[in-house]
Amino acid sequence: MTNTDKDRVVIFDTTLRDGEQSPGATMTHDEKLEIAGLLDEMGVDIIEAGFPIASEGDFRAVTEIAQNANNSVICGLARANFKDIDRCWEAVKHAEKPRIHTFIGTSPLHRAIPNLNQDEMADRIHETVSHARDLCDNVQWSPMDATRTEWDYLCRVVEIAIKAGATTINIPDTVGYTAPVESADLIRNLIETVPGADEVIFATHCHNDLGMATANALGAVAGGARQIECTINGLGERAGNTALEEVVMAMKVRGDIMPWKTGIDTTKLMHLSRRVSTVSGFQVQPNKAIVGKNAFAHESGIHQDGMLKNAETFEIMRPEDVGLTETNLVMGKHSGRAALRAKLKDLGYELADNQLNDVFVRFKELADRKKEVYDDDLIALVSTGADEE
Ligand code: KIV
Ligand code: ZN
């Protein structure tokens, strides 16, 4: 796959591989198949379905996801050895569009683990990428911990992987160490320096240890990356991975300065977020961007009043764009009369001004005692007032 459309960013979802690696996030076989189906339907270009050598269960899940995929490329992960790569191919080969993703840690700390010197590791990369390419014409290669790998060595191994047949070069920020400007420069410099770089797609794979995964991924795209690796809800090891919903909506909302397109149907984001949260057991924090419970909720009187007059006053995207039916006006002690009137209207009550004033006084008394006033509380307030008259 080469960059034919320079503004198209490929979305590579790794919820089922890197996301599922999160301690405690294990999903059942059927849950993995369901999530893969939803990702495919939403327009994810590539689904990293698992790590086939890791377990029988992973192998079976990747195989079945590959058999059932309609549109997405199905990718499996493999370490840099023939056994992993063969096992990965056995699982992904059932897909109409299969991909093998093979990786090795290239930073000094990671080279020390298999105890390979630079030359030995370079040979290993050449052999394993060539082997993967003999099996599959869509091969992704990753130098794990790329952002802490010496610049000259990184250029050298990326060039070897391209020559051996890799079609996508992924540059992982494995420990969430990089910063947005650096991330952009790294990709730009690699594309300018490494021979053959314009023949492949560069990908960005960021972790969120410093809370910069989304910014780093978008920085990398500014530098020329055209594949973002991400997960639903930012699920992933430690502080997680780049959140799919954040990068996709950032590009959609700020297309003026980030003129890059994806193939994602964003109206399916909220449903996917909720399903991933349920099956992984990882709750989404209420103030999480895009998919948090409060992302489209307004409580303060000034905000609610503004929202009722013109939603753009306090919202930069429409709830419908991410699959919510409407903005949520949360009724609490900061809410004003206009919001109360609108909420009661939604509940089927159109009150005269004097009735509204009465309910408003009692609503404020209640809101002082309760964090949130629910629809049933409001109905009770209106009914009590009506009974007394
Ligand atoms: O974070 C990482 O480096 C990875 C690789 C396997 C791509 O997940
Ligand atoms: Zn990762």
TrEMBL record:
Its EC number is 2.3.3.13. Residues 9-270 form the Pyruvate carboxyltransferase domain. Its cofactor is Mn(2+). GO terms for cellular component: cytosol. Belongs to the alpha-IPM synthase/homocitrate synthase family. LeuA type 1 subfamily. Homodimer. This is 2-isopropylmalate synthase. It comes from Roseovarius albus.
